[in-house]
Amino acid sequence: MQSTLINISPRQTAGFCLALTTFELLTYMGSDVIMPAMLDVTSELEAHARQVPNAFNLYLLGGVCLQWLLGPLSDQFGRRPLLLSGSALFGSSCVAAFFSDSIEAFNLLRVLQGMGLGFVVAVSYPALQEVFCEADAVRLMALLGNIALLSPLLGPLLGILLLEWLNWREIFLLLGFAAALVWLGLLLWMPETVGVERRDGHRNPTVSFSWRFTAQRYGTLLGNPRFLCASLALGLMSLPLIAWIGLAPLLLVRVLELTPLEYGLWQIPVFAAVIAGNLLLDRVLRTHTLQQLIQLALWPFCLGLLLLAACALLGVGLGPVVASLALYAVGLGMSNAAVYRIALFSSDDSKGLVSALTGMISIAVMGLGGSLIAAIGGGSRLEYFALWAAFGGLMCLPMVYRLLQTTTPDVASPQ
């Protein structure tokens, strides 16, 4: 790992990365660890089972609600105070879920908990890019992604294990306590990057907040074709994985009548494949440009989705569907951090604002797309899920094609 772009000690760098990684892990764990208990939640709160995927999609959409404001605010007031506020909001909303007495209150708290994800995307990711040089920032995004992906990989299994001793309310209380520890870690170790003089002589700019000016900046960014292609591609590329997370409890436990433990075990191949793709990214990044890396990742990505569509048409069982998802997930893991980097640097505007709109677009695509797949029967039959998930993922190809045509071949090698 190369030295940081701003003057912080190795100990503070390690502490910052640890606290940031833990917060990201918790924001995903807040969704995934509770999924095995969602049928218990709907039963206790006297709600219909269709609320199971709704809770997940509301969590994602909660991540969109504040991002448009968080990015510009962090450009003016700094990344550190905004991220501290976000961890406090996430922790308090998890504690509040312990006291929820209706599905409406529960869903509202899911939106508030999902806002923590918005703080991660709009505030912490730009800080990471501003602390480290390009090659190291891409590597860290991939490595942090690996750790975050342990949530959907281990989250259901951990949820099943915790349910042996705790109920779903107590699990939320545990998440709130963990968020309090993260808040303390960020308070101790997170550096401020906005307005700070860097070692290369440049200064990360402070941008004053203005409603009118912010709207104009967002309008300019929405008129940037390269940015739009990258942001839409990020959402559509992840849509099959997001749909799987949201609908797997219904498909595996309710439709296929698997045990909760079997449900958790079937998650392992898919998310292990994403991690494998991220590890491949770290190796290939040494000798390939971001453009070449994405082109390489499209092979397993497209082949996996085409096989997934074939599974739907042939009516095969769970094994081939999971294998196809795993192949697709390798390509997703290889390409996700690279596409995000292209989106973030497709504009010269402040990275807080660019990251905010990138997150809003990509998470909205994932949340709305997942809701649509659930609404048209993706949770009722495995074949329907496979067909619509494959179709949604392949819709990214026109955006990726245009993105590759307009991306300059900048080598992301170690600096």
Automatic annotation (TrEMBL):
Membrane topology (UniProt): Multi-pass membrane protein
Domain Major facilitator superfamily (MFS) profile residue range list: 16-407
Domain of life: Bacteria
Highest classification ranks of the organism: Bacteria, Pseudomonadati, Pseudomonadota, Gammaproteobacteria, Pseudomonadales
Predominant location: membrane
Keyword vocabulary terms for this entry: Membrane, Transmembrane, Transmembrane helix, Transport
Keyword check for Transmembrane helix: yes
Protein name stated in the entry: MFS transporter
Transmembrane segments: 12-31, 51-70, 82-99, 111-128, 140-165, 171-189, 227-251, 263-281, 293-315, 321-340, 352-378, 384-404
Pfam family, one: MFS_1
Subcellular location: Membrane
SUPFAM superfamilies: MFS general substrate transporter
InterPro entries (alphabetical): MFS, MFS_dom, MFS_trans_sf, Sugar_transporter_CS
